[in-house]
Amino acid sequence: MERPGSVVKELVENSIDVGAKRIRVSIWDGGKSRIVVEDDGGGISFEDLPLAVAQHATSKLSTTEDLNSIITLGYRGEAIASIASVSKLEIRSRTENEAGGLIRLNEGRIIEHVETTCPKGTRVQVDDLFHNLPARSKFLKASLSELRRCSIVLRDYALAWPSISFGLSHDGKTLFTTDGNGNKKRVLSQIWGDSPEPKMTQVTSGNLSLECWYQPFPSRGRNEVSAFVNGRAVNDPIIRAAVSNAGKELSGNWALFITINPSLIDVNIHPAKAEIRFRYTGEVFDSVKKASEILSGDPTKLFIYNTKKVDNDNENRPLPKISDRNNLSFSNRVQNLFTRAPSTPEVENYTAKDNNKKSWSFGDDIVDITEANQVDNEPDVKFISQMNSGYLIFENSSSIVIMDPHAAHERIMFEKIMNESTEGVRSQALITPEPLQPTLTIQVQEQEKELCSVGFSFKDENGLYVTGIPLLLGSTFSPLSLLRATLAVWEDSGNERKLDEQLMVRWAEIACKSSVKLTNKLHPDEALELWSKLHSCKQPYSCPHGRPTVLEMEFTEIAKHFGRN
Questions:
Q1: Are 506 and 485 in contact (CB under 8 A)?
Q2: Which of 124, 131, 135 is closest to 43 using CA atoms?
Q3: What is the CATH code of the structural domain delimited by 195-306?
Q4: Beta 252-260 vs 224-229: how paired, if at all?
Q5: What average pLDDT does range 49-68 have in this prediction?
Q6: Which of 103, 106, 183, 281 allows an S-S link to 49, with CB 3.0 to 4.6 Å?
Q7: CATH second-level architecture of 426-498?
Q8: In degrees rounded to 5, what are phi and psi of residue 527?
Q9: CA-based angle 35:40:41, to the nearest 5?
Q10: Lowest mean pLDDT, pick from 152-166, 227-241, 333-347, 457-471
């Protein structure tokens, strides 16, 4: 028993194993002062109550051979005894057509065992968790942090067992319920939300079958993964690696339900039963790979990272001669964060002097073309054409320059957001408040004060809504993607409550989502404005992920190549 979430996990698993159709979890003070788990399962007879709290006693195994094919979530007979040893424990239980019983323990010692009136099923109450272990209790997190861990446990089992009705309340307030009608998609919508609509596919690979649900995030980000093997929630490294591999192209919410013959896995390798061992690990990778290919709609696009090494050696890359490169610094994270910009006709041989357009909508940034600043040493730059491959060709007085418009626009958007960080963050009210899913609500409540300090605002009206987000000019954000990104930064940094450069970098990466694609056809006005804004950047040599923005070929080198010098 490490924390309240561990207690909730063990008690909920016991309720599932006895065939409960309704499970309610009530906690107070994040579970530190009280945890109550009630179910309508088969119950425990009065005579068996002392045995139920004894160490190594279990009703889920009959012979030693059962250990080779475990079909229940619990089997060791250690959970109740362990919980009782670090708390004040009370169990009320009744089987069908029998009298109910009550047993109370304090620090593992039975202090009362009597008959009592109670409904069919079992009610377990845990008070003052770790009151006799101050060394452990002092390392517990704040109440809302512990509540979030408990909610993740219940969320996972609500997904794995949709035919069971689950409920969670904290300090008397209901936070999460499911109706137990067996509709897995409905449970997912309560946890993930309805937009965008989750996708589902089923795959069979060797000895296992996989049901995979996936909901894309509005922008690139970490994967949120819930994995289950034969109804058991696991955080297994093999499954994490498989999803991480697929998640390079498909980032978002994942729920994987693996069904396999129990004799082909070992669930007894981790103290909390959080990891399992597969006899055939390759089948896990194969099934997740097939599922992700189906969900992506482009089987040839995925898993290129297994065979193609990304070149991160910047010294071997041709760099432009725009200005001094002494302070060049690259980030080598290669991501694809962006959406398409509107297509416009290609026009060749267009110069800055021909530009009579008053303004142009460039990505999400409305610019005044007539006042566009040109680089002092490049007054006569000409836009020649856009290649079929998407690259832009410019000519100045001394060279031909080929530009990657996507990388260039990324750099422009990135520096725009980073420059705004020095001016502080302002808030932008949303016209339509966005509702938050139950699990996201708990994360926000845990860090609401810090989120408000950086520009978010919320209201609680029969559920929590985000009503405002940080105002970052020139960028259009999905409120929920920005909120998730902000929460992820704090979690990755050990929940340090400060607005630092790391947070602004994450926001800037989301802002890059509005950058043009290499496949977009740009109007000459857009191409020239892109040139101008790139030359105004502090570091125009590369995008934030390390890719060069331009390649310059001097006329002298071209002449030398053709033997004309």
A1: yes
A2: 124
A3: 3.30.230.10
A4: parallel
A5: 77
A6: 103
A7: 2-Layer Sandwich (3.30)
A8: -60, -45
A9: 105
A10: 333-347
